[in-house]
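Please produce the structure of this protein holding HDD.
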Amino acid sequence: MVNMPLPGGDPKHTTDAKDDQLDSAREGENTGQLTTQQGVPVAHTDDSLSAGERGPTLLEDFHFREKLTHFDHERIPERVVHARGAGAYGHFTPYDGRLSPYTAAEFLTDPNQQTPVFVRFSTVVGSRGSADTVRDVRGFATKFYTRQGNYDLVGNNFPVFFIQDGIKFPDLIHAVKPEPDTEMPQAQSAHDTFWDFVSQQSETLHAVMWLMSDRALPRSYRMMQGFGVHTFRFVDDDGRGTFVKFHWRPTLGVHSLVWDECQQIAGRDPDFNRRDLWEAIEAGQFPEWELGVQLIRESGEHSIPFDLLDATKLIPEELVPVLPVGRMVLNRNPDNFFAETEQVAFHTANLVPGIDFTNDPLLQARNFSYLDTQLIRLGGPNFAQLPVNRPVTEVRTNQRDGYGQHSVPRGRTAYSENTLGGGCPALAPESGYHHHKDQVQGPKERVRAESFRDHYSQPRMFWNSMSGVEQDHIVSAFGFELGKVRATEIRTRVLAQLNLICHRLATRVASLIGETPPRHDLLIDDGASSPALSQLRQAPSGIATRRIAILAADGVDVVGVQRLQETMHDRGAVTEVLAPTEGTLDGGSGGSLAADRAIVTMNSVLYDAVVVPCGPSSVATLTHDCDAVQFVRDAYKHAKPIAAFGSGLDLLRVAGVEEPLADRPDVVAEHGVVTSVAAGDDLPSALFNELTGALARHRSWDRASGTHPS
Ligand code: HDD
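Below is the modeled complex.
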């Protein structure tokens, strides 16, 4: 049964075939008596069994031994990369049959099929307990539980990778991970070994440009793109192939944090992205992505001006448009982090009929690595039986035994071909998986293809595609990262590489780190760019789920705040009232308002916008509260929308906001600072509209102070 709601009475209301299947593995809430693993009720668990009140502990205390032994074995190896992550369940539905001419994969072509999915987002470099908001690539791995078996699309939020051949993956990861002698720094690329590697491997440069860009600092997992990265192959019912690149596009738009914020959030809420995903789903604000594909005929392979097998290259959307093909919604949080998000096992070789690989040497290496890593991480060959990993289709193999065998296979035969078992499980010559018949020939040799040699034109295209603000951020990021590099010769080598991308880029970075800029402009820039790569050039999105902090104290204009809340909630935003202490605030002209949180427990970096409402005594309190003043100062510095009305404008003045402020009820909106002297029922709706517009634009980079940090 796929996607049919289950009858009530289950421990949890299930919604699809995967949820239905998981139900059999879910335990009820821990409400009954405590037992041992053997189900024996436990009478006493706080003192071990000892010989005499102050005597030694006895070996026969089986409850003590079982409790300690299990605890001692609770940890499994964390993922060697992508150790820190967060996941959720949902579903994918294709829009229609538009991909039918290209692929036999039913989940992509049958609009009547809603396929359950599990998605895990991750950072790459940090350990399991590291902060979410580090400068890093984000993993975007999707397991589709299709009717033809599990398909895994194990992608990232960058469309390109750092190396061309997977044999270099251990070198790359050893260079970027904490240095082996000190195990420092944690979850950072800003150290000597990473840049030592980069400075000698020009193939890394394109991905490094993405890493230094705002893409490496996503505001939310819900607001980032995903990419399959490699060129894959669709295969139709007749075995004909078409090259394909996969894209996920979030409906909430693509938005980033700024670096200064990221560093603050890493201390104030290291779970920032994880919490954001969890809370949005709990609140019913289900994140959505559109799946898009770029299709290239096999005969057109060589019309693309670079090698499709090179994972350090992207196909500009202007050259091959992205065809939207379906929608994914994440609507269910896991019940248990370890059982589901930690034990989920992705593998690039989990394919269904209709999708195949190409000879991309990075992908070929991955096809070895993922299965291999799951064996050590999940302790044996039966990890596909773990609830989160099980397909919703029936599994019938001749594989037997091994650690953690959970099923009870019956019958005498576990081999093929057999007659004793009636020849079962039988082969599926028609519907089974057939590898694409790719023609290959050539000598056996260790060599990098000539067509992989150009390492500079796409980093340059990326740089050329950025807006001025995005370029500023990239320059500052290089300045920060290389500023942490102690070895001068590494800095010099990196600058020499940057000089081959753009002389101006190298010169600007050199001046930030006090190094001599490369002397000559060595390149001829063809000016190639792909405007689709710029985040800031994309159309503004809506404001759904954006978080607005309302700063208030006793004496606040309750009517004004309530009108603001109602309007912004109607538009999908989330508001929270922050006050010097939690509790109920008295309104200046009657009424009261609940304060959701104390200002000191939060910070403007945890919100998208801040509003200071009217209320002379409320504002007087806030102007003497350092945390409240800093709140507005930081929001201003980080180019976030700020609104104030009535006496609320005073807090903006004290915080040093330099934009023109209103001196009449008419709304003044300059560079994302929206003000009016009106209050309560007189508040003009233009104030809400201007705030909405500023939120949809995300940041105002043109602030008068010009001091926003990158
Ligand atoms: Fe990888 C995990 C994505 C190249 C070897 N990778 C992993 C995850 C993601 C990616 C999203 C986390 C999956 C999860 O949430 O459990 N990896 C990529 C992308 C790559 C890439 C988009 C390039 C296009 N990876 C890559 C190479 C190798 C690996 C070249 C090795 C040759 N990756 C692994 C791994 C991991 C992994 C060691 C660690 C944990 C795991 O697999 O399950 O096998």
